[in-house]
Automatic annotation (TrEMBL):
Limits of the Phospholipase/carboxylesterase/thioesterase domain: 24-212
Similarity field: Belongs to the AB hydrolase superfamily. AB hydrolase 2 family.
PANTHER family: LYSOPHOSPHOLIPASE-LIKE PROTEIN 1 (PTHR10655:SF17), LYSOPHOSPHOLIPASE-RELATED (PTHR10655)
The protein's name in its UniProt record: Phospholipase/carboxylesterase
GO molecular function, one term: hydrolase activity
Alphabetical list of SUPFAM superfamilies matching this protein: alpha/beta-Hydrolases (SSF53474)
Species whose genome carries this gene: Microbacterium kyungheense
Source taxonomy: Bacteria, Bacillati, Actinomycetota, Actinomycetes, Micrococcales
């Protein structure tokens, strides 16, 4: 049996006191391959201040000499094995159980690998997460036990990607394009000329999406 991944709780960057989450809306940031918990943390300046933000550190180190961290391997014969994405998503859920149980709501914002893991976590446990933001990521192929419940709940998901992104394979973009609209309340945009990165225009759209989530959550 494969050993479960464990996220380093001491590496998490918090915008608020993690001991005072009760009643707060929590947004988790999941960085991409070769980055670390510091990569997306500056985005909090573009996000609604009502959110407590926690930027997580992926559990794996990519092969030398690649820098940073990774959520799952992309090298070798099993680099596209979807079970690795699931394993990373399970580690995120375990972290939430241990460190974020008191939050009023929990959302996910991931870039690239972090986007794939965010969507996989949403699929693993649809009731746990209020929404997801997928920046330059994709839906992992293959069925998950929570997919039927996800389609019933249809949580809000924002998907942003660039026309010049040559990192995510075309078949994964096509799969995500077909898969998401049938199971989530999808919004998003394809950004002309954007590479495998995040733009000011995209961040403005993310801010609008998150403002709407606050309105929905506080209106419940």
């Amino acid at each position: 049996m494969t050993e479960a991944l464990v996220l380093d709780a001491d590496a998490v960057l918090w915008s608020a006191d993690p001991q005072a989450l009760a009643g707060r809306h929590l947004l988790l940031l999941l960085h991409g391959y070769g980055a670390d918990e510091h990569d997306l943390y500056p985005l909090r300046a573009y996000l609604p201040e009502q959110f407590a933000v926690a930027s997580l550190a992926a559990p794996l180190a990519p092969p030398w000499p690649a820098p940073g961290r990774s959520w799952y391997p992309i090298e070798g014969l099993d680099g596209r094995d979807p079970s690795h994405v699931t394993r990373a998503a399970e580690a995120v859920i375990a972290w939430v159980d241990a460190h974020a149980a008191g939050a009023a709501s929990i959302g996910l914002l991931g870039f690239s690998q972090g986007g794939a893991v965010s969507l996989q976590a949403l699929r693993l446990d649809p009731p746990r997460f209020a929404y997801a933001v997928n920046l330059s990521g994709y839906v992992t192929p293959g069925g998950m036990p929570g997919d039927a419940e996800l389609a019933e709940r249809r949580p809000p998901v924002f998907w942003g990607r660039g026309t010049n992104d040559d990192v995510i394979p075309g078949f994964l973009v096509e799969h995500t394009t077909q898969w998401l609209p049938e199971r989530v309340d999808l919004s998003g945009r394809v950004y002309q000329g954007l590479t495998h990165s995040v733009s000011e225009a995209e961040l403005a759209d993310v801010r609008t999406f998150l403002d709407k989530r606050l309105d929905d959550l506080d209106g419940d």
